[in-house]
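ARCHIVE CARD
Drawer: 12
Card no.: 0347
Subject: one protein chain, sequence and derived structure
Cross-reference: see card 0346
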Amino acid sequence: MRNKQLRTLLAVTLTLNIILAIIKLGAGYLYNSPSLVGDGFNSFFDIFISVMLLIVMKTASRAPDENHHYGHQKYEGLIFFGLGLFILFTTLLLGVNTVKDFIAYFKGAEYTLPGTPALIVAIVSVFIKVFMFVINYRAYLKLKRPALKGDAINHLSDIFATAVSIISIVLAKFNFYIFEYIGTLIICVIIINSSLNIVKEAAYYLTDASPSKKTVNNIRECILSVEGVICVDDLKVRRHMNNYYVDVEIGVQKDLILEEAHAISEKVHALVEANFKVLHCHVHINPH
């Protein structure tokens, strides 16, 4: 059921991104708004993101198999990382071209003021993007899929980018055309910042990074609360996308029989997995 909801969400997002890319690029070129063209390319990148998410989410949802004993969730992190790099690279190219146009403007290149339809398209786009942000972020809170969080963040940055485009168009219509280029560069900075955040978070998922110290300490306290556990000799927690794997060495009385010691380890195993987002807790027993 959740996978069906996810596919429906991604299909809706893809459709809206296609519509936004078409109307932004069309209005930007037809009505002479460089900032709206830049925002249109941003929506074009979003189409690529939506398509890749549709493909990867299906793969990441597959159960563990003979070649992937721990499941396929990291495919989601991999595409998350690749999307961040793709957005970063293409936005840098857009920024370079805008700087060239900026220089040409100061050298006396002719320009045409943006038309009112460009402003209308930008305003409508903001409302659509707000809707897309809300549905994606709500889906992330419900499904806890990192890629949805990244897509929601991307939509939020798009809202700010389009708002900048609106301001730029309004100023340009009052003969402050230079703000069209400034607005485009600001949009580039917003998108670059979002892409760097995506790359950073994706790298965090892919490198088995540890969770916060607070989370590790909470797991430690949970383990120590089990009757029979004298101490925690070693505790390692690693991220597996939105979940954790735990490896712990606990100290128990050395004179316990094997069945008693094993029963304590089973309690630790069950309690940790029940109270935290832990896929598996491996417990090793040390005699004390």
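Annotation on reverse: Residues 74-106 form the longest helix (33 residues). Residues 102 and 108 are 10 Å apart (CA to CA).
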